[in-house]
Specification:
The protein contains 17 helices and 15 strands. It is α/β, with parallel strands linked by helices. The chain folds into two domains: 195 residues, NAD(P)-binding Rossmann-like Domain (Rossmann fold, 3-Layer(aba) Sandwich), CATH 3.40.50; 213 residues, NAD(P)-binding Rossmann-like Domain (Rossmann fold). The structure holds nicotinamide-adenine-dinucleotide (NAD). The site of nicotinamide-adenine-dinucleotide has 28 residues, from helix 4.
Length: 440
């Protein structure tokens, strides 16, 4: 039976190792340098939250098809899924984990092995970072090994299903490598497996998230324009989407998560002079938390004074993930302006600034509440409930989730981000933004 070693047992590597063992019927060794991850797995427990993953892990550990180790062991294939964080100062990818993981293979690699990089990386990483390291094994990557990049597209929360059913790209350093990579993933992937070269695979993955970032930036720019022109961006979006070839995304308080807010930077890193639209989109989306704070300044009777409730801290609905979440910056900026901020999120348990434990606590005596995350729980907010907790409340809905008219009829002003009609005589003072990235 083919043996594979998965290097890095995080959100991507652990489910991948489990699925290779469970569905691919391969002998899998999961490797992680974090002793706590390994210790927990030795006890049969997983360290990440993902529906169905614990049960699947228990199954393969008990069957003996998955074992764990702190170091790579000899195998037929190695799959690397280590972090590739963004360096916030330089806005470049930190590839040190990829380099170290590749180095860790040198003592176990043998002729005929397959090396797969799953981590998201700037274009050229396989050729410029991995191949020179692999050469140090004494093997020629083109003659003696198969080397591919196969990026991951899964969404946390549905990883087990998507790993199996999504289509997957396999980009090789040559055609034979790509075909060998395809053969490995055919053990469990039911979607299409599309072969290409490594650099194309690297860029394709990045451009998928860049596409979303740029389109969200367009929607956000529309929202800003509408608040200046006194037009409702949501109505423009609704009407424009009747065009058979137009699909406007939704404006919002900015983008978060580990992909859309980060991957475009890797494209900019690869082609800094030409990636102008991509850079501008990053700037527009990165500035949205500040725009939301300008909205708040306009709606509050006195800038920097009063109670503000922030509803939702996660970067998207019904999850506990706060990575790169615009809410964190909104809380920080409002607090530093002088507002008294109370933030509530039903899912996020890790402590965050201004956190309170209940919705009631957040809303009591607030002057303004901002809906930042469209968690399902907030859909059931009613004017009566809010009025029972606060005297003259105003709501800023950055997600267009509340029925503003209904609240207005009940005596509560709801302002929807991007609906310039509601602003009437109020003019939001968006300060001039210098053409630079220092705001992000
Ligand atoms: N999380 C996602 O939804 C997602 C989606 C698509 C792509 N990706 C990409 O996949 C890659 C991995 O992301 P993640 O979310 O799984 O990261 P993660 O931080 O959850 O897990 C990475 C794991 O790698 C381990 N590690 C680091 N260096 C190691 C080494 N040298 N040897 C062995 N283990 C090592 C860490 O201890 C950690 O447990 C990143 O490039 C990310 O951008 C992630």
């Amino acid at each position: 039976m083919e043996k594979i070693c998965v290097i890095g047992l995080g959100y991507i590597g652990l489910p991948t190792a489990i699925v290779f063992a469970l569905k691919g019927k391969l002998q899998v060794v999961g490797v992680d340098t974090n002793p706590q991850v390994i210790e927990l797995l030795h006890q049969g427990k997983i360290h990440i939250k993902e529906p169905g993953l614990q049960d699947a892990c228990t199954k393969v550990l008990q069957a003996g098809s998955l074992s764990v180790s702190r170091r790579p062991v000899p195998a037929d294939a190695f799959v690397i899924a280590v972090p590739t964080p963004l360096n916030n100062e330089t806005k470049q990818a930190n590839l040190s984990y990829v380099a170290k993981a590749t180095e860790s293979l040198l003592s176990v690699l043998k002729k005929g092995d397959l090396v797969v990089l799953e981590s998201t990386v700037p274009p050229g990483t396989v050729a410029e970072v991995m191949l020179p390291i692999l050469q140090r094994s004494g093997l020629d990557p083109y003659e003696d090994l198969w080397v591919v990049h196969s990026p991951e597209r899964v969404i946390p929360g549905n990883i087990l299903y998507e790993l199996e059913h999504n289509s997957r790209i396999v980009g090789g350093i040559d055609k034979e490598s790509a075909l060998r990579g395809k053969e490995l993933y055919s053990s469990f992937v039911k979607g299409d497996i599309l072969v290409t070269d490594a650099k194309t695979a690297e860029l394709t993955k990045l451009m998928e998230n860049t596409f979303r970032d740029v389109n969200i930036a367009l929607a956000n720019e529309l929202a800003l324009i509408c608040s200046e022109l006194g037009v409702d961006a949501w109505e423009v979006r609704r009407l424009a989407n009747y065009h058979p070839r137009v699909n406007f995304l939704s404006p919002g308080p900015g983008v978060g998560g580990h992909c859309i807010a980060i991957d475009p930077w890797f494209v900019i890193e690869g082609s800094p002079a030409l990636a102008r639209l991509i850079r501008t989109a990053r700037m527009i989306n990165g500035e949205m938390p500040e725009r939301v704070c300008h909205y708040v300044d306009t709606l509050m009777p006195k800038v920097g004074k009063g109670n503000v409730a922030v509803l939702g801290v996660a970067y998207k609905p019904d999850v506990d993930d706060v990575r790169e979440s615009p809410a964190l910056r909104i809380i920080e900026m409002l607090s530093s302006r002088g507002y008294s901020v109370r933030a509530y999120d039903p899912y996020v348990k890790d402590p965050f600034e201004a956190q309170v434990g209940t919705l009631e606590e957040a809303l009591t005596d607030m002057d303004l509440a901002i809906v930042v995350t469209d968690h399902t729980e907030f859909q059931s907010l009613t004017a009566e409930y809010i009025k029972s907790l606060a005297c003259h409340p105003v709501i800023l809905d950055t997600r267009h989730m509340l029925d503003a008219e209904q609240f207005r009829r009940a005596g509560i002003a709801v302002y929807t981000l991007g609906n310039g009609r509601q602003l009437q005589d109020k003019q939001i003072a968006y300060p001039e933004v210098a053409a630079g990235l220092e705001h992000i």
